[in-house]
Structures are given as C-alpha cells and as structure tokens.
Amino acid sequence: QVQLVESGGGLVQAGDSLRLSCSASGRTFSRHAMGWFRQVPGKEREFVAVIRWSDHSTYYADSVKGRFTISGDYAKNTVYLQMNSLKPEDTAVYYCAASNTYYSVSNYGAKTAYDYWGQGTQVTVSS
C-alpha cells in the first residue's frame, strides 16, 4: 500500500502563485508515476499533470500548460505542483495520485492509470 498526503492548498488571488506538495509513504518502490488531478463539486475529476519517474517525462492538461509545473524528488518520495498565474477557474480540490504501471506518459491522463489517491487539498482563487 501507498499513502499519499497533499499539502500547500489555500486561498489566493487571481495572478498569484501556489505550490502543492504530495508526500508518499508505504510501499513506495513500486511507483512508476505520480500525478495531480482536480475536482470541483458536480464535475468529473480532471487530469492536471504527471511526472514519470523513469525519465522524468511530464505531461500537462492544456488548461494549465505554461502556468503549472510538476516536479519531484523520487528519493524523498515527494512530488510538487508549482501553480503560477492562477485563475478563478483553477479553484478545485487538488488530488495527488500514484501509478504502479509503466505507460506512455500521455496515458497517465486517465484516472484509471492510477492505483492510489490522496485525500485532496483545497485551492481557492478569488477574482
């Protein structure tokens, strides 16, 4: 089992920056990738970004490309999401996820690619 704990959420104004962190513990050696998703009430959980540990390849949703950056430290079992130029539409609960399977990096855009999920951290961007 892998446990994921997110932190760093909060209330910011449009145009501000925020950095989310996700720490993994437990049976971490089986991870192939870690990603971020987000969800607003009444909508599907949507993909944000992923990093594949084998080569540090990254993949982003079009809505965040150029504004968000995913990075991580495999030795520390931690992944980060640097969010710049935040917009009100970025308001959501952000979830960290980990995958035990090696895929083409774009395939990590699907929720079904992940085996473990964190509890989420709220990000609110005011206009």
Cα Rg: 13 Å
Shape designation:
globular
Helix/strand/pairing category: mainly beta
What share of the residues does DSSP label as strand, in percent? over 45%
Helix content: under 10%
Descriptive notes:
The chain has 127 residues and is mainly β. 0% of the residues lie in helices and 51% in strands. The protein has no helices and 11 strands. The protein has strands spanning 2-7, 10-13, 18-26, 33-39, 46-52, 57-60, 68-73, 78-83, 92-99, 116-117, 121-126. The strands form 2 sheets. Strands 2, 4, 5, 6, 9, 10 and 11 form a 7-stranded mixed β-sheet that branches. A 4-stranded antiparallel β-sheet has the order 1-3-8-7, with no helix packed on it. Strand 7 (68-73) and strand 8 (78-83) form a beta hairpin. It is globular, with a radius of gyration of 13 Å.
